[in-house]
Design a protein that fits this description.
This protein is α/β, with parallel strands linked by helices and 481 residues long. The chain has helices at residues 13-21, 26-33, 48-57, 61-64, 81-87, 127-135, 142-148, 151-162, 169-192, 203-211, 222-228, 234-250, 283-290, 311-322, 349-352, 412-419, 439-444, 468-478; strands at residues 2-8, 35-41, 92-95, 109-111, 196-201, 258-263, 267-270, 279-281, 297-301, 304-308, 334-339, 342-347, 362-365, 368-371, 376-378, 383-386, 388-394, 402-403, 407-408, 424-425, 449-450. It has two domains: 2-270 and 383-478, Alkaline Phosphatase, subunit A (3-Layer(aba) Sandwich); 279-378, Gyrase A, domain 2 (2-Layer Sandwich).
């Protein structure tokens, strides 16, 4: 039996169901109607690399050790699902998953996701795709283009190139990227015939961050709508494009011998003042407060600050920052975590959901009373992450048309393992979603356990460090910093 996992970053039922009802997502409708589906509860903070790693390991971030966008594959403490399957004799390949750089040559194929700052791929010939994805430069190798891309993808690349200097540059890039990615994945599946394969689509997340006001205009004031500006409904365009690519990919798999899973890491809501993630750190002002003389470097991502310095300095900073409280209510302001050569400073959840006026709030640091608005600003993106993503499981072993109440992101890997007849690690935080399987399958295949799948796990030693300048540029484009 084969399995295909479709990752759709930021996909939300509140977008999908209306589009299904309008007949615009026939392939997601087919999977949903023929399988089991429901909402998937994410974790806090719902950052893509953190959540996707939980999805693919079945473990919370404290165990898998991926903390934020500045983590890399060398930080991983656990195998991911394709590693476990591959070492159990199930040939696997992945496309565009985060933190897969450098790619694993033991897999049939592995094309790293957008966080990769090198162009390494397995097979090597697809480094051309990574060059396009990283640098937004259209491939010039005509033979490679004709061999790997459809005419629609070629036209999408040309449309992007024509609009390279317009405000539509970024949405057209993501539309083109998903088309090209889908074509390459199809070619890889045809060539290698993996028993387990997975592809990630990220354009749904980008469009939802930037253009959610086009879907829910009633959730924004007229003044804000005017400021955000008018534009095409890029969210609808992206969902329809992803659905079309999914349809093309499904045709490569025999329906009676393949199980399909579609999953997202979180959903989306229009950004409202009372919602979480209202605030984000201001990097340079924060560093000026804690003292920049002995700080080697820093990087801020939303509500998480990465501080790089000598270990002794970081340990002292950690003690000082951990003790900080909000003057007006006594609540702790930060949570600090040491990770090798850096200190992660993260907002406490209690502060993230406070609706009080930050202009009237203060904290004390080294005996100085400091206004919170000096180091905190307001999120301006119209779309913000919501706590529920999507989950669909369709295929010969899953119930048809079944709707479950709620599952968790940590349940995905145990469920996949069980579908292949493999034991679930006792060190995993998720469970097998037994209710979505057909009764006959569960009766004949009781859930099995093993202490861990990570007994032989070894951390990667990275030969090349992440190019932080390039990564920061990508995160700026996405609106994270």
């Amino acid at each position: 039996m084969k399995m295909l996992v479709l990752g759709i970053d930021g996909a939300d039922w509140k977008f999908i169901i209306p589009l299904i009802q309008q007949g615009k997502l026939p392939n997601l409708k087919k999977l949903r109607d023929s399988g089991a589906s429901g909402p998937l509860l994410t974790q806090k903070p719902p950052m893509s690399p953190v959540v996707w790693t939980t999805i693919m390991t079945g473990k919370v971030r404290e165990k898998h050790n991926i903390i934020n966008f500045y983590s890399n594959s060398g930080d991983l403490n656990s195998y991911r699902i394709w590693d476990i399957l591959n070492k159990n004799g199930i040939p696997s390949g992945t496309m565009s998953h985060l933190l897969t750089n450098p790619p694993d040559e033991k897999l049939l194929f592995q094309i790293p996701g957008w966080m990769s700052t090198t162009s390494l791929t397995v097979p090597e010939e697809y480094s051309i795709f990574k060059e396009w994805e990283r640098k937004k430069k259209i491939p010039r190798n005509i033979i490679w283009i004709l061999k790997n891309l459809s005419l629609r993808s070629i036209f999408a690349l040309l449309k992007f190139r024509k609009n390279i200097k317009t405000k539509h540059k970024h949405p057209l890039y993501y539309l083109a990227d998903e088309m090209v990615k889908g074509d390459i994945f199809k070619r890889l599946v045809k060539r290698f015939k993996p028993q387990f394969s997975s592809i990630m689509f990220y354009g749904t997340d980008f469009m939802s961050h930037k253009y959610i006001h086009q879907v829910f205009p009633d959730r924004f004031t007229p003044e804000l709508l005017k400021k955000l500006g008018d534009c095409p409904n890029y969210i609808e365009q992206m969902y329809m494009l992803v659905d079309k690519k999914i349809g093309e990919i499904l045709k490569l798999f025999p329906l009676d011998k393949t199980n399909f899973i579609a999953v997202s890491d979180h959903g989306f809501n229009p950004a409202m003042p009372e919602k979480a993630f209202k605030y984000r750190l201001k990097g340079r002002p924060f560093i000026s407060v804690i003292g920049k003389k002995k700080i080697k470097d820093f990087a801020v991502l939303g509500y998480v600050l990465n501080v790089f310095a000598e270990k002794k300095i970081l340990e002292k900073l950690m003690q000082e920052i951990d003790a900080v409280t909000i003057t007006e209510n006594g609540k702790k302001l930060f949570k600090c975590t040491m990770q090798e050569d850096k200190l992660l400073v993260e907002f406490k959840t209690e502060f993230m959901t406070i609706t009080s006026d930050i202009n009237k709030m203060h904290f004390k640091f080294r005996n100085k009373e400091i206004p919170i608005n000096r180091i905190v600003g307001q999120v301006k993106r119209p779309g913000t992450h919501a706590k529920h993503g999507i989950f669909i499981a369709s295929g010969p072993i899953f119930k048809q048309g079944y709707k479950f109440k709620e599952a968790g992101i940590q349940d995905v890997t145990p469920t996949i393992l069980h579908s292949f007849g493999l034991p679930v690690g006792k060190d995993m935080d998720g469970k097998v979603l037994t209710e979505i399987f057909k009764d006959e399958f569960i009766s004949n295949n009781p859930v099995k356990f093993i202490d861990t799948h990570d007994s032989d796990f070894k951390k990667k030693e990275l030969k090349e460090k992440t190019d932080m300048k390039e990564l920061k540029k990508r995160l700026e484009e996405l609106g994270y910093i």
